[in-house]
Amino acid sequence: MTSNTDRERSKAGALQVKGEILTIRRAGDYYVIVFAAPGVAQRTRPGHFAAVAVGGQPTAMLLRRSFSIHQVDTAGALGGTVEIVVDAHGAGTKWLVERKPGDSIDVIAPLGRPFSLPKDPVSTILVGGGYGSAPLFMLADRLRERGCRVDLVLGAATASKLFGVVDGRRRASALHVTTDDGSMGTKGRVTAVLDRILDDYDGQVIYGCGPMPMLSAIAEIAQNRGIASQTAVEEAMACGVGVCMTCVLPVRGTDGITRMVRSCTDGPVFFGEDVRWSDVGTVPTDCLGAPIAQPESSK
What we know:
By secondary structure, this protein is of the alpha/beta class. The chain folds into two domains: 4-111, Translation factors (Elongation Factor Tu (Ef-tu), domain 3, Beta Barrel); 123-279, Nucleotide-binding domain of ferredoxin-NADP reductase (FNR) module (Rossmann fold). The chain is built from seven helices and 15 strands. The protein has helices spanning 4-7, 40-43, 91-97, 136-145, 165-171, 191-201, 212-225; strands spanning 15-27, 30-36, 49-52, 65-73, 81-86, 104-111, 123-129, 149-156, 174-179, 186-187, 205-209, 228-232, 248-252, 258-262, 269-271. Strand 1 and strand 2 form a beta hairpin. The longest helix has 14 residues, at 212-225. The chain is globular and about 55 Å long.
C-alpha cells in the first residue's frame, strides 16, 4: 500500500546550516518559529525533524533540541524557509522563543525517516495530540495531492493546548477536534471519535504523532481492524543523529526479531504494529542483544 521510496531519508541527507530567524508568533500555548535554512526545505518530507542548538555561544546547554518540521517553503530568495512549533517549557526552549528576527540559529535538518505515502488514493486519518500535530499538515497536503481523503483529528487536554485548528479546516477533507475537558469539540480523547471516522469513511491508513500512550492506542485500533498505522514517536532525543543511544525503543523487524532501535535515525516514524508499546522504556528479555539473566549463586 505504501511506497518504499517515500519512507527513505532524503537522498541528499541532512545539512548543518546557520538559519536566520524571520518570525516568531504565538499559537495558543505554543510558538511557531519561521527561519531561513538554505537547502533544507528542498530536502524535507513530512515526518522529518530538525535538531536546533540552544543557549548561544558559549553555553552550558550542550544538547540540541529536536522539533518536528511543521511546514517548508522552497520559494523565495532566502534559499527556502522552515517552520517548527515549540512548547517553551524548559531552559533551552525558552531561550529559543526569546530570539528576535534576524538572529541566527544552528540547525541540522532534515533528520530521521519520514512518513510513507500510499501508492493509490485511499481514505486516511491523521491524528495529532497537542503540538505533536505539527508534521501532519504538510502530510495532509501530500496525501491530498495523491487523491486521498484526509480526516484530521486534533486532540489535547484543553483548547489552548490544541494546535492548528484553523489551518486544519483548510487542509483536511474534514476536521475533528477533541479535548479532555470538553472546552472545544468532543469531550474525551482522540480515540473517542476514531472508530466512528473509520466506519464512516472506510479508513485504510492511520497516521499519528503525539504522546506515546495515544500512539499506542492508535496502533492497537489499527491492528484490530487489520489496517496500517504509522506513528511518529516522541522519545526524547539528546543528539538527534544516532550517536548517544538515548532514544532507543523496542521494535520488531520484518524477520520477527525485536531490536532496540534509535528513534532519531531508524524513526521517528514506525509502523504501529512493529513497536512493542508496552515494553517502551525497557529492554525486553527476548530482544536481540539483551543481557542474559545470571542465576543466583548457590548458598
